[in-house]
User: What shape does this take?
Amino acid sequence: MATADKKDTEFILVISTTGSVREAERISKILVEEHLVACANVVPSVRSFYWWEGKVCQDAEALMLMKTMPDKLEALKKTLTRLHSYEVPELIVTPIVDGLAPYLNWVRESTHPEA
Assistant: This one.
């Protein structure tokens, strides 16, 4: 399956899970401080079912919803991978196709404070 060209969208939503709220909060704070994301929402309680090492597993996890721009994605991937406790962290990217202009302008300004 082909991936969409990063230039197709100006804004993206990045989704990840962690093993605890504390971990999600720690990672989110660093990503915001480093201007890799404008905002990270931490949803404290999701139940995940998945295949791992040949068996079905289930865990309580925290969900992170992060708003950013495509030019921040590679650095975000590296930082999240470095900070995350999972051997294979979830990181899924989806385009933001529309939104309120003042909010999207804020995402741009928050991830590019030097501009």
Notes: DSSP finds three helices and four strands in the chain. The chain has a mean pLDDT of 93. The radius of gyration is 15 Å. The chain has one domain: 10-111.
